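Dear Dr. L.,

I hope this message finds you well. Following up on our conversation about the binding site, I have prepared a predicted three-dimensional model of the protein together with zinc ion. For your records, I am including the exact sequence and ligand specification that went into the calculation, followed by the C-alpha cells. Please feel free to forward this to your student if that is useful.
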Amino acid sequence: MNYYPEPILKLINSLSKLPGIGKNTAERLALHILHAPNHEAVTLASDIIELKKSIQICSVCFALSDKDKCRICSDPQRDQTSICVVENPTDMAAIEKSNAFLGTYHILGGALSPIDGIGPDDIRIKELFKRAASKTIKEIILATKTNVEGEATASYILEKLKKTKIKLTRIASGIPMGGDLQYIDQLTMQKAMEKRYDV
Ligand code: ZN
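The resulting structure of the complex is given below.
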C-alpha cells in the first residue's frame, strides 16, 4: 500500500483501528472518502469531533448523554422508581428498541469476572447501591448477560440487596420466539424448563 501518498496511508491506518475493519476495508473506505463530495467528508470529520466534544456520561445512570443528566433520567414520563441494570450501553439500546421497559437504567460498565481480575470496585456497583439506598427505588431488574459473568454479577447484586424492601427481578431467558427446539443449547433449554409457566 506504500504507493499511496502519505495522507491516504494515514487515513487507512486510522480507519483500520476501528472494530471489524481490516486493512482492505480501510483502504476502500479511505478511497471512498477521498472521492466523496467535499461537504460529505467535512461532515464526517466534524461529526467525529462533535461526538468527542459533546458526549459525556449521565451522572445518575452512566448512560451516554449530551447533558449532565441523560434524556431518560430527566424524563418525568419514565418510571424513576424502577432501575434496569445492564452491563453496557449497547444492552441498554437493545432494551430501548424493544419498547418493553419504561423505567430507568443503570449501566455497570462491565460484569464481575474474577478470572480477569474484575471485582465489584471495577464496575459501577457501588453507585447502584447508592441509588438503591435513596428510598425512592421500588424495583431493580437485573438485565446483565446470561453468561457466567453476567449471572455472577446478578447474584452478587441480589445477595447485597435482598434485605432491602426493593423488589428484585431477573430478566427471563429461554427459547427465542420462532426458535426451533433442536438448535437450542443445553443451558438455554435448562433455563426454559426451570422457568416454565402455567397456561
Ligand atoms: Zn441517565
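In brief: Strands lie at 56-57, 64-65, 79-86, 103-107, 139-142, 167-170.

With kind regards,
A. P.
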